[in-house]
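Justification of resources, computational component.

The compute hours requested in this renewal are based largely on the per-chain cost of generating structure records like the one below. Each record pairs the submitted sequence with a full structure-token output. That output is archived, and it is also reused by downstream analysis tasks.
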Amino acid sequence: MLNGKKSYNFSDKTHSRDGRLATVLGAGAWLLFGFLVVESILTKGSLGIWFGLLGMVDVIIALAGLVIALMSFREEDSLKLFPRLGTLLNGMVLLILIALFIIGL
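The structure output for this chain reads:
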């Protein structure tokens, strides 16, 4: 209810299952990225190889989420909220991780 008015949906469209999965993967990628940033700050950048491996896992999660989100746009009779949100979340974290990798070279 917005401004005291009820919201009705007169469509048979449902939320895309793959879009929801992509959004969950994007949220997970952001959480893992945040964890890695906090750990890096706390240890002043002296993390071991396992944290680099976690960073690569984060890239794989974000890439998989982005692919699933883009594929979920093809589903007919589905709402596009979660595919858009999944694309945004996964795309942004993937761009940030790639930029950090390039800066680190």
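The two ends are 50 Å apart (CA to CA). The chain has a mean pLDDT of 87.
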